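Dear Dr. H.,

I hope your travels went smoothly. While you were away I took the liberty of generating a structure for the chain from your last submission, since the lab meeting agenda had it listed for discussion. I wanted you to have the full record in hand beforehand rather than looking at slides cold. The sequence, exactly as received, is reproduced here:
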Amino acid sequence: MIAQPDSLSQAHFAGLDLLDTAVIVLDATRIVRHLNQAAETLFELMLRDTVGRPVSACFSEPGDILAALDAAEKQNANVTDYDVALALRLGSTIHVSFTVRAVEALGYNVLEFRQTDQQRRIANEERLAAQQHANRQLIRNLAHEIKNPLGGIRGAAQLLQRELADPALTEYTQVITDEADRLQGLLDRLLTPHRLPQLGDLNLHEVLERVRTVLLAEYPNGLAVRRDYDTSLPDLYGDKEQLIQAVLNIVRNGAQAMHGAGEIVLRTRIARQVTLNRRRYPLAVTLQILDNGPGIPEHIRETVFYPLVSGRPGGTGIGLHLAHTFVQQHNGTIDFESQPGRTCFTVHLPLNGWTPPDAGK
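The corresponding predicted structure, in token form, is as follows:
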């Protein structure tokens, strides 16, 4: 006799939470009966909100999944689909391979997903980390070479200003002094991230509230900053000021791109069994920063975290570089997806097992 799906409780599926792959269990009518923790993280879904709903309601474009289910039923065999672009309900798209397996004894179909762009993401993180390390070495060397002559130029301009008989000419020496100060400030900001984090327990939502307050003070008209917090998040162990600066740099970048008129969303979630910088963490925090601005220009997407790269006239190209550096110093990762009308920066930070990054990185 085939067991009825409703007769099995969620406890029967507890073992699926030990799997790294995302698993969704459907009954014969394609109603979701369970999804494991990896599936919650990958598909941005919550177990309590998903069980009892049709699988077609869990994705924006479920056509590939439904077609695979049809094929599995027709062929009475397992069906695997490779490198499928799967649109999630919250707007992002991921690339997955998945297999439909029938469990006839229980009357279930099991969908098992593997994220095919994860290896691409890891390779990109490694490439970016290596490039950032080279950039930091170059910046250190250039900063030390520039600072001494820069101080000499500023001092000479001040001496010349005192000797000028015509006060109108002091406008030019003041330009020299101001530009020397601006370059000195630029060098100082580039060198700032090389200190190690000052660690302590912190509440990520307090960080985000500080950022939100500053941003709304800078853009009081036309900018909306919406919260979408998981209030169950435990405290992080990190440097509060560095994380405030990192998040502030990202949201400012979005606000400036929208000219202070648009919407920014700050979203937090728990992620389970996450690999960050080739290390596995049982728990991590996922912070997403979304805006509905014009998007990041195509020609700088590969280098947007590099220093002195900016898509905005007058931009210094330091903000996102510092954000990446601060997140990396917390053993976290940062990446983004961007298209006109939707840009999403995603920051992952480990919740436990934190160890300082290797010296010199």
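Two observations you may find useful: Residues 1-7, 356-361 have pLDDT under 50 and may be disordered. The chain has three domains: 5-116, 120-192, 198-350.

With kind regards,
E. W.
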